[in-house]
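--- STAGE predict ---
source: upstream dedup step, 1 unique chain passed
mode: sequence only
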Amino acid sequence: MTGVPEAKLKETDAGPVPEGEGWFVLDARDAPWWRDDELGAAVVFEGEPGFPQLGFHVKVLLPGQPNCMYHGESNQEDFLVISGECVLVIEGEESQLKAWDFVHCPPLTEHVFVGAGDGPCAIVMVGARRSDETFIYPVNDVAAKYGASVETETSDPGEAYARFPKSARTPYRDGDLPEQRG
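--- STAGE serialize ---
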């Protein structure tokens, strides 16, 4: 039996990241976080190379923060709200979500999440990956009221996010994740 080797964790200024292929265990509070004042904070567990088949991260949104620009993509995505509240704009319709609500998005389902309520919202976000991935960022009036719609439809992520500053990689900050109970 050959087994799968353990990936080495390389220390960075924001926390450890896996280096190369292999299995690993990494506490979300130790891993690097990506922060953006307008689009929330996220812990991304990948190093270099990134995960080839599946993207997985936890996004934390403050009230009024969208997680991204309203979009659809050629891959399946799934989401689980684990704490707090948010608004889901999906296929142009609004829906209120709370902890333990699950959202399944088949390929090209147009969507965005926006933090709501009176505190942070944490969402586990999982998406398939493939080399020919494509995106569409349509104009949408419902998403626009949350600042989450492009002004002109595009398929270019760089164009869709041009108005946002580049996210900064930082260590975990106390309070980013809901406290563990029990």
